[in-house]
Each structure stands twice: as structure tokens, then as C-alpha cells.
């Protein structure tokens, strides 16, 4: 999973002010991880990331298609309005992310483990299984959904860009350009989806990462931010509006190859199986 390199670098970059490390850009962050912790630490947290994407990607696609087919249906001419795509994409992303939140929480914490050790802090995680057990032991089942609200907010915005943008841009290309429903159309639509998803999702990604990785008290309450809104306000007040787009480039670099790989592969598999494309 080459895209995971950008995911790890992006998470470290977004959390700069949480762990109070010196400011570094995305490239400097990745180089610092390699220099200080080793090359393969860029893939630390890959296992829970795989768990998360199995649940997340499968769920969001199925829900989007079922809602499009049975609830927010296309008009009689076959057109599917942008607002329906947007609502459907956001809803699908929220449900999928809620189910995938435990694995996402472990992934984020594992990505930060090497930096914690370098800063002299005690290790929290030895393996994904130990991480799940530790979180459950300290906070119960509810602890596995720490940060679920900003996570779902982020997923709603990302899928507003990814699912809705892919569906809408693909329909536009097929109806307005004369292109066929083939890999060229799928590539162009996926490029659009990745870029729009980065624009809509980066602010929520910043807030999500900071809320999920902040230190907590004995009762599991955050010590830096009261809630998502408080993190949002503090980030702008202390660092300016564009703090919400800190990590946009790695976010785009992460979502662009992911969208390209996911959508083109998914569509080609559907064609090989004789199923209808997305």
C-alpha cells in the first residue's frame, strides 16, 4: 500500500501542535521519521489501516448504491442530481466510518508511537491486538469510539468529495463528452474525486487527528480540547484559518492515488464480473 506512506506522514504533520514538536513540512516530517525511527516506521499502523479499509470502503459503497437505488432515486430521465449525490455520499461515509472507528483509532495511535518514545514518553502500544485490549480495558466499549464524532464528520466531508464527486463527474463525462464507460472515464472521474475530497476533508482531518490523539484524564476526557468545536475554534484562534488546511498536500497525495487505484480497480473488476459499473 504505497498510499499509506502519505497517510502516516500526513498524520504526523497534522499532529505537530498536539505533541509540541518543532514544525516540519510533509517532506521534512517523512524524512524525520526515517532518520529518527527507521524507514519502516512510515508503515507503522498498516495492519489496523487494512482492517479499517475493509470495513469502511465496503460499507460506504454498498450503502451509497442502495440509497441511490431505493431512496434517493435518479429522476425518470436517469439523471442523478448533485444534491442527492452529496447527501448520499455524506450519509454513506458517516455510517461506514462509525463502524470502522475502532481500527482508525488504533491506526492513529500506532503512527504516533515512535515519536512518543523519542520524546521520552512511555510506550502505549505493542501491537494492534494489544492496542484494542488496552483501549477496551481502560475505557470499555465506548473507548473504541473515542473521536467518533470528528471521525464521522471527516468521513461525511471526504465522501461528499469522493463518492459524490466521482458519481457526478462520471455521469457528466458520459453525458457531455461522448466518452465511453471505460478506464479513461474512470481515471478522469477518480482524479476529480481525489482532489475534491482533499478540499472538503482536510479541515475535518486536522480536527479528527488532534482530538483522537490528545492526552486524556483518568475518566477518558480530553485535556487539550473539550470537543470537536473547541478544537476547531482553538486551531483557528491560535494558528489562523489555514491551520485547518495544514496537511492539505499530503492529504491530496494520499487521496489522489487511493481514489485512482480504488475506483479504476473497482470498475474494472465489475466489468470482468459482468456487473454494472458504479
From TrEMBL:
Q: Where are the Solcar repeats?
A: 1-70, 80-172, 181-272
Matching InterPro entries, A to Z?
MCP_dom_sf (IPR023395), MCP_transmembrane (IPR018108), Mito_Metabolite_Transporter (IPR050391)
Q: What is this protein called?
A: Mitochondrial uncoupling protein 4
Q: How does it sit in the membrane?
A: Multi-pass membrane protein
This chain's source organism reads Timema genevievae
Q: What is its main location?
A: mitochondrion
Entry-linked Pfam families: Mito_carr
An example GO CC term for this entry is:
mitochondrial inner membrane
Q: Which family does it belong to?
A: Belongs to the mitochondrial carrier (TC 2.A.29) family.
**Where does the record place it?**
Mitochondrion inner membrane
> Keyword annotations for this protein?
Membrane, Mitochondrion, Mitochondrion inner membrane, Repeat, Transmembrane, Transmembrane helix, Transport
Organism classification, top ranks?
A: Eukaryota, Metazoa, Ecdysozoa, Arthropoda, Hexapoda
